[in-house]
Structures are given as C-alpha cells and as structure tokens.
Amino acid sequence: MTDDVLRRSEYSADVERFRELYPFGLDAFQLDAAEAIAQGRGVLVGAPTGAGKTVVGEFAVFSAFHHQGTCFYTTPIKALSNQKYHDLVRRYGEDRVGLLTGDVTINADAPIVVMTTEVLRNMIYADSDRLRTLTHVVMDEVHFLSDPSRGPVWEEAILNLDQRVILVSLSATVSNVEEFGGWLRTVRGDTDIIVTDTRPVPLNQYMMVGRQILPLFDGKDEHIGSVNRAVVAAVAKQEQTGKRREPQRADVVQHMLSAKMLPAIYFIFSRAGCDMAVKQLLMAKVDFTSPSAREEILRTVNEGVAGLTPEDLNVLGFRQFRRALSRGFGCHHAGMLPAFRHIVEDLFSRGLLKVCFATETLALGINMPARSVVLEKLVKFNGEAHVDLTPGQYTQLTGRAGRRGIDTVGNAVVLWQQGIDPHAVAGLASTRTYPLNSTFRPGYNMAVNMLGTQGWEESHRLLERSFAQYQANGTVVERAEAVERRRRDLTEQSEQLTALVAQETHAGSSELADDVSRALEYARLRRELAQEERRARRNAGDERQGEITQLLRSLRSGDVIALPTGRDPMTAVIVRQDSTPKNPRPTIITDEGWVERIQPNMFGNVPVLIGHMRLHKGVGRAPKKQARSVAANLRRMHFEHKPAKLKPKARGNSARATALRNQIQMHPVHSWTLREDVTRVAIAHIKAQRRLDFEQKISGVEKDSLADQFNHIVSLLEELDYVETNVDNEGKKTANTTFEGERLARIHHESDLLVAQCLRRGIWDQLDPAELAAVVSTVVFENRKETGDSTEVPTDALAIAIDHTIRIYDELSYDEKRHGLNVTRPPELGFATALHQWAAGAPLEYCLRAAAASGAVLTPGDFVRWCRRVIDLLDQIRQTAYSQEVRSTSRKASKAINRSVVALET
Prior knowledge:
With 906 residues, the protein is an alpha/beta fold. It has five domains: 3-195, Rossmann fold (3-Layer(aba) Sandwich), CATH 3.40.50; 203-430, Rossmann fold (3-Layer(aba) Sandwich); 444-473 and 705-737, no CATH class; 548-646, SH3 type barrels (Roll), CATH 2.30.30; 746-903, CATH 1.10.3380.30. The chain is 50% helix and 13% strand. The strands form six sheets. The chain has an eight-stranded mixed β-sheet, with helices on both faces. Helix 7 (151-160) links the parallel strand 6 and strand 7 (166-171). Helix 22 runs antiparallel to helix 24 (655-666). The longest helix is centred in the middle third of the chain and has 46 residues, at 509-554. One of its GO terms (cellular component) is Ski complex. Residues 251-452 form the Helicase C-terminal domain.
C-alpha cells in the first residue's frame, strides 16, 4: 500500500467526506486536526498566515452541521465575520447560515452562525437558549487574545463556555503555543496541540535599495549571519553617495511590475500616507488596467456606492477614489468609508487591482491575498510614540504574500531608507514566532455577570484558572529580578553622580544632597530643551516645505537657483515648468549636467533664486539632449547673489526653547567646571529611575492577583449598591447582584459603570433623540487628533446633560482611585455637536466641519465608525434604561443616526 493510502486509512468517514469537498489535497496538519475534532477533542492549531488554518474551522462547521449540532464561528472583527459569512453561505446556503455582529443580525437561529467574539461572550452571560444545542465553537485568530483593548473577551468566552462544547482555536505561529495549549487543556479538557511552521507558498525576502530589488539572504538560509553581501554593498554605496531620499512610490511599483511581483499590498503605517500614495500614482499616470478590466472595475464601484447621493460622494472624494481604482490601484485603511473598503477588498481579491496601499489593519486576516508585500518603513505609531515593528507584526504583515494555488512563491520587499540596517531586517525576517500574552483583567460588567451566574467562590476559581493568572504565576520571579536589576543600575548611577558633584562643589554631606538635586534639575532642563528643539525642528521643517513649495511654484523657465548642498552650492536652471498649483515639479539641468524633475520633499532647506539665463526653445522639449551645452553655459556664468554656503537643513527654534536656554544659562550648575560630565551622569540617573519605576509598576500588576483586583471591584460595586455580599453561618462569603447590578450586566462597554450611573441618576432623561445621541457619544468617542478645545454644544439641555455626565465621572474616578482601581476614561466632547447635527438630519459635510470646529478632525470612515459605536451603546441603553421615555428615545436616536453613509452595508 502507498503512504497516501495508509494515511487515508487513519481518518474517519467524516474526514474523508470533508476532504473530497476541496479540489486540492489537504495538508497533514489539517487532516490531523479534523480527525481530533471528529473524535470529540478540542484543538489548538498554530500555523503561519496563509497556511490554511481556516480549513480546520470549516471542518468543525461541517461536523456540527452533519450531526444536527450548532456551530458558532467567531472572529475578532466585523469585516472578518462578514467575509466568513459569505464564504459559508456559498457552501451551505442562506437559510442555514446566520450572522451576528452587534449591529447586524441575519438568520440568528441558523445551525451555523458567524459572529464576533463579543457577541458570543454576551450570549454566554445572558444564558441564551441558542447555547442549548451548541456543539462546536471556532475561535479564528485566537492570538487576538493578547490585544490590550479587546483580548480579555476571548478569555471570558473560553472560561465560561460549557465544557461539552468542542473548542477549535486557530492561531498564528506563537512561540509559547505549548504554554497556551497547556492552559486550554487545564480549563477545557482534552485538547490536541497541532503546530506547523510550513508555509504552503514559500516566502522570499527582498530589500529594495535605490532601484535594485535584491534578495535579503544568501541562498535559502534565513539567519542574521547570511545577509546578502550585495544588499550590504548597495546600502553602503547609497550612504557614501549621499542619495538618501525616500524611494518614490510610483517608481517602486513600476519596478515591481517589471519584476513580475504584482499584485502587491504596500503597507504604509499612516492613513494620510496611503491617500498620498494614491495621489502620487495618479499624478505619475500609472495605469495597470486593460479596457475590459476597467469596465468591470467601474461597474463594481458604481454598484458599491448605489445608495449614496452625489453630495455625499463629493464629500467622500469619490472621483479620485474611482479614478484610481479604474487604473488598477487604491488604498485601504480605517479612515475610509466601510463601503469603499469593501469595494477595494472585492476588486483586489478578484485580481482587478495590482497595488493596494494599506495600513496594518489589513493584516488582521481579511482575505486579500497578494503575490508580494511591501513595507515602506519598519517603524509605526502605536498611539503614543513611533516604535519599531516587532517580529510578530513583521510576520503578520508579510504573511499576506503568496496566493495558494496561484503563486509558487510570495515576496516580502522592505524599502531601504537611511537608518535601516539590513542585518536588523534579517533579524525580523528570520524570527517566525512571537509570544502570546494574556491581557485579561476583571471589569465591572464582568464582575456582576460572574457573580450573577457563578457566585462568589466559583468566580474566584474562574479567575484563578485564567490564562493571565496561569502566565503570572510563572513570571513573578522574573519580574522581581528585573526590578532588582533596575534598582542596582539606579544605585550605580546615583553613586557616580554623587561623586562627581562632590568633586565639583567640595560640599559637606549636609549640602551635598542639595547639590545633587540641583544637578538632576539641570539635567531635566537640558533634556526638556533637547526635546523642544527636536519638536521645533520638525515644525521648522514643515515651514520650510511650505517655503520650498511656494518658491518652486513661482519659478519660470530660465530661472537659475542655488541648491542647498552645503559649501559652494550646486546651481541649476529651470528648463520646464509643468507643475500643478498644489504640486510644483519643475525640471532642472544642474551645472554638472544632471536632468531631474524636482519636488519640495527633495530638499531640507529652501533653494535660492540667484539669476536668469536664456535658453533655446528646444531645451524644454528635450532637456536631456541639451543638458551638456546648457550645463557648460551655466558654469561659465557668474551670479552675484549666489551664497557661499547653503546647508541642507536649517535649525528650528521656539519661544519655549529660548526660555529653556535662559533657564539653563541662569542655573547655578551651568557655571560648574564639570558641568558636561555631571549632566551626562545625571541624565543616565534620570533614565535609570524611569526604568525602575516602570518595572515596579509592571511587577505590581503581576504580583497583584486577579482575585485581589476582582475584590476591589466588588467592594466599589457594593458601595454603589450594584452588589450585595454576605457571610453565611459557616463563614463562607456569598454575593448577589442587585436590581441595578442586573442592568449593569447588560451594558458591555469600557465605560459601563459610568453609563449605568448616568442612567440610574436620570441625567439623560427628557432629552430629544439628537441630544441623547450626542451625550452618549461623550462616553464612546476617543479623539485621535485634537485640534482645539471648543466645548459649545447646540442646545442648553445637551449642555446640562454633559455637565452632569462629567460631574458623575468626577465622582466615579474619585471612588476608583480610593479603591485602588484603574480610572475609567473621561468623557470627550469632540464628537457631540457633529453627532447631534447628524441625528437632526444635517448633511455629512456639515457634520464633519462641526466635528473639526469641536477639535476632532474626522475622515468619513471615522465618522461612520463612531456613529455605529454610538448606535451599539444606544441599543444597549434601550434594553437597560430605567425610564420608558429613555428607551423610546434611544430607539429613535439609533434610527436617526442610521441613515445615508452610516446605513450603507458595513
């Protein structure tokens, strides 16, 4: 018998019937996982992106369906739920598949239901009747459990799910899969851990240096020591020649087209960057489409926006969006209208788009396979600072490359820029796994739900069984050692600083402490000045770009400019001015005979207009043919106003920086002989103190058990009458939820207790629908980019309701601090006026301007997302409010918001 026949004999009839549904052979890990499910065991599957993990989830659906059971297929985001729903409908039919995403309910009683994990968690807490027939749960992208904001929901669901349900967990390749699997076995029983590191489509790693796309590694050995020497040499040449400007996006995609690396997802970690990339390709007249493909693209686009008015489309920048797609490229990011994102996803998945500029949100598992992935940078903004990509993020992003059944290999291309080390890139590329860490922490809603369904003792046992506690128990020693190490570093820096100060001041022991404090104060001022100067330079850079743009826009053919190249600046003559008002790009010939089209971002300082020269009429039409003679004439000319030196960058300044310099110069330490040595050590001391504070904070979180945090939460809830606790005759503690606690249990929101308190106090009563929507937005909205602090709102009733909401928040935050709890996020007013106007019927453009006037700059996609978040909370309020009036008003408010772009399918 052949090996294939022998292996087939190992699998049950269900698995054999399932494998016949696929036109391609299933991999061993898929078959092994399917067999474990068929035998009634749970599975944890860890595999690279694109390896086919979802096939295992689809077998769970198949098994439940053919044995008259029910399967819930959960995903971390609504886009994935929508996509999976349509996939399953194609196989099982519309009447057998449902969809629940909080704001969308389709066929909820079907035997197969796709949902977000939050919906499953809420059903468990509500003890839904649907759970009676539930036999299988698939948790796709279960590594999302480590997400700080939403990850805890996954653990809540896993811990509270009935033990008889077969749990199928699908994860990216994580380094601690055995640890996670061990926890699943502890809390869920028999669970097979099935891991594969094999990608069905191999991934080749490249670095683009200048115009060369070079293999990152020598051969196939992906180790840091095997970096391709050609890459290192190319980088060194770029550094030596000073050609350090960022590669032009239009050039990158054209080179990739020539290398047969398209279609590609081009990751840019900025919404504005993605939008700008589309504009740049349009300006460069890039076009990837044939007439027939263009016709199909335009038909799809027109169908996708059929529900929008011309006025809305104008606000949404539809003409540029449509024109770019018709040429075979587009962008995808969270700031876009959901309908626009769906159009891009559809076109790309059908092969009609060759390039999609995207932020990292596209790496979450949406099925948009590409032949290649481009990473423009290896740093991203995490909401607080620009940080390097982690190996896990790099793996997740590049894992999108390589289409199974279409491509024989996938390509990951990193664009070289100044400061990127090929060896560091190789380190990222050769690290295939990353740790999965729990973010599970008890909250108010969780506490009342656990007490209501589990009781006091069982709630504590459940917390002790969490993955967070499972991990914490093994890291206490490591954390303690980290704290001690930081404490030793601080002591060492303190001793060095004290010795230097004593050497400088010869002070006695009583005065020495004051001198050390002065040295630290001086060092802090120096650090603050450095930070302020960096900020000022950034601002100055923005101002310079404006000046450069204005100059380039004003130049005419024959104008001679001095370029900012340092000593004896290079001169150049404008030979053609074919710019647009917003994007000046004149063509120049330099005194060395170079011909190039220039644009503002190529210069770090403003070029200087120094004269004019006459040009032949044919120079503008064919500058390269005339370059040598024009350059010779340019070198012979003498310009009186040519500067002797024109540095590439100019220093920025600010009033704050000037004030800090004055403080520093007046400070007593500034006159010390050992000032620089003292400052260097003092700054090291400050950094050591900050590191120690951080480690102590983290260590405190790890040492503090989840049960202790839970007890603090229950203590506050008891004080506010959401919970009642008692001690029985045997000394055992019991707890029950009150009437108010039962209402809190139905509010699933990060500001759950604040919302419950507002409803309980009646401060949202007697508002009209628009006013209720606006005040609810204050506890939902989070401003990404504040531009002002206007607090004016349209009506007096709304202003009073907001004032009362803030007052209740102040009371709650005080109580939280008193009980040692994390403080609830404060209300934000930036969206209130815009949402009030929208609910009152105002057009989209007007509402976006209202948001901007209130300090919140929103894209249409942001606007829709926050509207839907408010609708979600309004629907919860409709079910939990004390007043019939508020319940009715919340229903009307939801309906008023859910129109036009908000009502379009999400």
